[in-house]
UniProtKB/TrEMBL annotation:
UniProt source species: Enterocloster lavalensis
Source organism, top-level taxon: Bacteria
Alphabetized PANTHER family for the sequence: TRANSPORT ATP-BINDING PROTEIN
The protein, known as: Oligopeptide transport system ATP-binding protein
Keywords: ATP-binding, Nucleotide-binding, Transport
Ranges of residues in domain ABC transporter: 5-259
Length: 332
């Protein structure tokens, strides 16, 4: 499989300052040492409770947020380049390849302007100079999301939530990106139209050979969309696996707890419900050792002092960061 993103030890920390001289007193470790490869054409689901760093990870991968450490290697026609070192021109080219779709389609479209001008702007910015060419692209992307071209003359408030999100997707497609980073793209929509938008996204993905990073807290939505899933907890990856393996054989106690909270899965598998106890600790004062140890039903002595490494376990490509699966750690 061809890799499109190689993310290495990515770190996005936000300083916490105090007083008038803005003395740095700590950091919010939103993304903390994340390494991962993303394959071309796949949908990689990203799950975890709110505040676990999913959105910051997505934004950092496309440089909307500046990382404080690590590298983001992107495949430019077979050659990997570190986008964290890009100058303005290179960044401009990179931006064209990776686009984002946000949760709230209303805020993503300027309410004062007709859709037409929101759609024309990115094309102008990216140097599509003639009106004819611009309108051709606009017609093409609108067709992909099943919206009539004459709707361009309307304002955002004249559309339903589902239509607005389809418009946002269409606008992201205008520059012919290779990757779409979707941050909770359907969670603001009525459940009745979520499936419609998700199916449309699947069709578009096939048609354009797009890679999706699909961030969501709704696990049934992620399961429906993803080829692989990464589970985040307090800024770290705790488990990555093919979607099937993750749902059938979750390894990490956190993943198990997350999955057992899905009512539908409960009915099908009659799995014992495992309720997550306690709050997510603050990403400022992370616990020592395994970040999950204060909530983990399987916590051992070693977990309180030593952070677990990522190890392979089970099916190919299944990785987990937990001492239970690290033979060397358990022996020691
Ligand atoms: Fe639980 Fe220990 Fe595994 Fe962390 S490393 S998830 S505390 S068993
Ligand atoms: Mg978020």
């Amino acid at each position: 499989r061809e890799v499109i993103f190689k993310i290495e030890n990515l770190q996005t920390w936000f300083p916490i300052t105090k007083g008038m001289f803005k003395k740095v007193v700590g950091h919010v470790k939103a993304v903390d040492d994340v390494s991962l490869e993303v394959y071309k054409g796949e949908t990689l689901g990203i799950v975890g409770e709110s505040g676990c760093g999913k959105s910051t990870f997505g934004k950092t991968a496309m440089m909307l947020e500046r990382p404080t450490g690590g590298r983001v290697m992107f495949n430019f026609g077979g050659e990997f380049k570190d986008v964290t070192k890009f100058n303005k021109d290179e960044m401009f080219q990179f931006r064209r390849k990776v686009q984002m779709v946000f949760q709230d389609p209303y805020s993503a479209l300027n309410p004062q302007k007709k859709i037409y001008s929101s759609f024309e702007e990115p094309l102008k910015v990216h140097g599509i100079d003639t009106l004819e060419e611009r309108e051709e692209v606009m017609r093409k992307v609108l067709k992909m999301v099943n919206i009539q071209p004459d709707y361009l003359m309307r304002y955002p408030h004249e559309f339903s939530g589902g239509q607005r999100q389809r418009l946002c997707i269409a606008r992201a497609l205008e520059v012919m990106p290779e990757v779409l980073i979707c941050d909770e793209p359907v969670s603001a929509l009525d459940v009745s139209i979520q499936a419609q938008v998700l199916n449309l996204m699947k069709e578009i993905q096939k048609e354009m050979n797009l890679t999706y990073l699909f961030i969501a807290h709704d696990l049934s939505v992620v399961q429906y969309m993803s080829d692989r899933i990464m589970v985040m907890y307090l800024g770290r990856i705790v488990e990555v696996a093919d979607s099937r393996a993750l749902y059938d054989e979750p390894l990490h106690p956190y993943t198990k707890a997350l999955l057992s909270a899905i009512p539908v899965a409960d009915i099908h598998t009659k799995k014992k419900r495992q309720v997550l106890e306690g709050e997510v600790p603050s990403p400022i004062h992370k616990p020592d050792g395994c970040p999950f140890h204060n909530r983990c039903p399987k916590c051992m002595e070693i977990c309180k002092t030593q952070a677990p490494n990522m190890v392979h376990h089970g099916a190919e490509g299944h990785m987990v960061a937990c001492h239970l699966y690290d033979e060397e750690a358990v022996k020691a």
